[in-house]
Request: fold
Amino acid sequence: MQITLRDIARKSGFSVTTVSRALAGYQDVNEQTRQHIIEVANILGYQPNLLARGLRSQRTQTLGLIIPTYDAGFPNEFFNQFLLGVGDTAWRNHYDLLVSAQVPGEEEMAAYRRMVKGLRVDGMILARTRKNDPRMPYLQSQGHPFVVNGRNAPDEPSDFPYVDVDSRMGIRAATAHFIALGHEHIGLVLPPPEIAYTGYRLQGYQDALREARLPLRDEYILYGDLQRSGGYQAGLALLSRYPQISAIVACNDLMAFGVMAAIQERGLEVGSDVAVSGFDDLPAAEYAMPPLTTVRQPIYEIGQRLVEMLIGIIVGKPPEETQIVLPSRLIVRASSGFNGRR
Amino acid sequence: MQITLRDIARKSGFSVTTVSRALAGYQDVNEQTRQHIIEVANILGYQPNLLARGLRSQRTQTLGLIIPTYDAGFPNEFFNQFLLGVGDTAWRNHYDLLVSAQVPGEEEMAAYRRMVKGLRVDGMILARTRKNDPRMPYLQSQGHPFVVNGRNAPDEPSDFPYVDVDSRMGIRAATAHFIALGHEHIGLVLPPPEIAYTGYRLQGYQDALREARLPLRDEYILYGDLQRSGGYQAGLALLSRYPQISAIVACNDLMAFGVMAAIQERGLEVGSDVAVSGFDDLPAAEYAMPPLTTVRQPIYEIGQRLVEMLIGIIVGKPPEETQIVLPSRLIVRASSGFNGRR
DNA sequence: ATAGTAACCCGAAACGTTTCGGATGTCAAG
DNA sequence: CTTGACATCCGAAACGTTTCGGGTTACTAT
Reply:
């Protein structure tokens, strides 16, 4: 059934050891011998048994990724792009990807244990850190290589390798953009409080208000669920309670779309009546009606850098920089009313 | 470092064999012994080494999925949902998922060989079949379990297990819907010709025209790339060449969004001036402006059924029905002008 | 002739699990 | 007292690979 090293050994007249070493590129095998063995291997259609190899060498050439999901709201476009960056880079470096999607909680930790202690993966990629996240301490206690997309919350130390985007600067830029356009009553739709980056985004909002000496009004700040529907509800709530609000900063694009829907639902016009901004710059942001002003984060690149960092750690050559904060950039489009008739 | 059966054996005073059998639930071990062994295993934090288990038992409890991608245009929302259905169901059945994304071609086949002959996976899930698809014959020749999302093209036999949606009926319903609204010049934006389901969608379009005794005009039929941009280009081309066209059937939602953009770009109104329909019913379809009339396919369910079917095949209990065509359903929204002022 | 060296090769053990084919002990029936 | 049946348990082999620690040969320098 399966072609093994033994088959090649028998057919080529060499030992299993030599066949193994020839195929692995060791220098202590005659070049002619190697060619012959390679030829036989090709004829037989040999493919190494990766389980056996992994068992023996304690290396699986596989990375693990557990996508955090909430109820039905699964991998949205963000994780799409993330998965692409991670998957591409892993493949280019000859690593496979073991993927699971788990709701945070006990089962999620079981999935981590299974991957890590089942020796299935050489390293793990974590995403969407939460407050008091149990995953990093666990992996640290196991001494298992891992990298994280996102830091811990501002008030917790982040003593692990990560790649994050500068949310604080991003939201600050978006808020400042609205202030520059003359808005004084600016709503904020935050991610759920348990998400680690929520703190940074709030800071950015506060920064911008402080700089402009505008009062910080807590009642203008609502939490959403990162989905479109959460943005919609928050948007409706803000608009009905505080009609003076003329701009809303949403902390991701999906919620921004919901906010836009809420605005339109109330018979107002996005951009001219109420300005909106998002965060992520998903492809859909550009095509929304009106196109969404948003903070772009390089999602693909984040995945890519994470994998490179992780592989470096696995092979014992960690990059000198293992805590990276990438810049974010404000992309101004019509939803902020910049080109509107304000 | 790692806790093995030997450790449990030493600590509990039983043999490795008995420990293994106790944990595996065999009946020839004393219940009291079993409890004791389980307890020791828990105290030690035992997690089976899945590589060793797989090597010995020739089962990995892992399914393989290679997402077909074109250039940068990666897993779009469709594969998101698909991945969710597949991932959820796999997890519920205690299977892991090995994922890769490959551009069709030589490298793609290498990825398949690697997964299959490297003995990493117990079965494979294929998606987006193409004409003359080399993957199914390969897997058949290897006698490796697999299931497919989608059939072969209408003119090729499909002698493998699959779950597909009834594209033909879906497009036929969409086209007939336009005809019923009085449209006589209806454009069609097809997927690339090498995709297997393109033939079925074309048939559906032809069916509807034939039924209504409307002439089939080949020049109304264009091919897109399944992306938004392809729909945009096709839409512009149709509208500029044939101003009499008053409705366009796009073969997926992404292309339909592009067509809508093209219509608006030309100063026309979607729905009233030119009606549009899509296929898939992505979440974004409902929120588009105007909301998109489209053919819904149960993407999550397809993934779910595929995994159930595949696991059945793996464990030797294939379901009686291994070639499933699920119904599709037309969802009428504003983009077809049904509620418009036509 | 001998020792040393380089080039090439190989046997055997090990990774952690499952499973085959018994082995042992106990007890009831004959 | 023997036999058989049953309930428990276990030794050893096997899955396919890598790697450690050599071994053999042929050549070079003494």
The two ends of chain B are 73 Å apart (CA to CA). The CA atoms of residues 168 and 204 of chain B lie 4 Å apart.
